[in-house]
Amino acid sequence: MWEAMLSTGVEGWINHALGNPPYAPMANRHPTLAPHGVYRCVGHDEWVALAAESPAQWQALCRALGPPAPAADPRLDRAVGWLLEQQDATGRWANRYPYAGKLIVDIDAPGRPSKWVTLRACRVLKAVDEARDRVRGGSVA
What tens digit of pLDDT does each residue of 37-52 get? Predict the structure, then answer.
């Protein structure tokens, strides 16, 4: 019996042995999978369980769901507008947070244009544009 318990709770035991605080309740969330959970569907007592272990699985899930893609939702217009307002005159985005010593790679100093923040912003805007193009029936190159 203890073998079965060990296989499902080893992370918590190791965490406790290292003197770390106990894990907080996570409900349907998962520390490394997103999305991960059980979601209500249309109908009485209808549910679906979803988990994506990799970006490829997330993309496959988005393709399976079909349009409208989440990024095409008009409720995101305000967030996209805010992101575009943060772009400077040279077309770059500034780093707004002190990441020094928190990541494997060096991130640009706060307040200065950042290639990493710019890359991330461009990826978000590209995903939104592609999703909206798919909803309109266009092709994405």
Answer: 888 888 888 898 888 8
CB atoms within 10 A of CB 91: 9
Phi, psi of 61 (to 5 degrees): -65, -45
Do 85 and 137 lie in a common domain? yes
The answer, as to whether pTM is greater than 0.85, is no
When divided into structural domains, the chain yields a total of 2
Q: Which residues contact 49 (CB under 8 A, 6 or more apart)?
A: 37, 38, 39
Based on the domain organization, do 73 and 141 belong to the same domain? yes
Residue 31 tokens read as: 């520390």
Chain position carrying tokens 């907080």: 24
> How many residues in the chain?
141
